Amino acid sequence: MKRKALTLAFAMFATTSFAADDGIITKQSKYSVKETVEKFQAAVKQRESGGFIVFTEIDHAAAGKKFGIDMKPRTVIIFGNPKLGTPVMIKTPLLAIDVPPKALVWEDDQGKVWLSYNSPDYLYKTIYPRHGAEPPQNYAPFAKLLDEMTDQATK
Asked: Domain range for residue 77?
């Protein structure tokens, strides 16, 4: 009975979004990697009037394939808001090694698709201080926006 309860609890946890202690938020997607990437990029582009853009994407699996290495799909999307991020990077140039934000869309060994990204708390309480950058006083709107965009891509 105990084993069944533990298995059920793990199954429930594995199918919901979660924030790991390491500052990464991961959400399961009901779409393929390709569809999730497209939906996430569309969600970012819908916010262009607010300054958000997709800078680029990196297809790790395609890069590996060029050298005869097969891996499950792993695509990083680099996105952000230059109106907000650029002034901070002007003051603290090394911040650019960690920002703009990235989202990783990936497939696990069981064929499940996930979207992972750094939590806003991690970004503003760990990454910004690492470089001596002053975090915004209120980043709740950014956290809400990230949640909405990632939900739009995964649900």
From this structure: 24-149
φ, ψ of residue 91 to 5 degrees: the values are: -75, -35
- Each residue of 94-113: pLDDT tens digit? 999 999 999 999 999 999 99
State the residue for tokens 């582009």.
45
Tens digits of residue pLDDT in 37-47: 999 999 999 99
pTM of the model: 0.85
Q: What is the largest CA-CA distance in the chain?
A: 58
* CATH assignment at residue 56: 3.30.310.70
State how far the alpha carbon of 103 is from the alpha carbons of 12, 76, 77, 89, 91, in Å: 23, 6, 5, 20, 25
86 contacts: CB under 8 Å, gap ≥ 6: none
How is residue 132 written in tokens? Answer: 């001596």
In a domain, 8, yes or no: no
Q: Residue 27, CB half-sphere, CA atoms under 13 Å: how many?
A: 20
Is 62 a member of any domain? yes
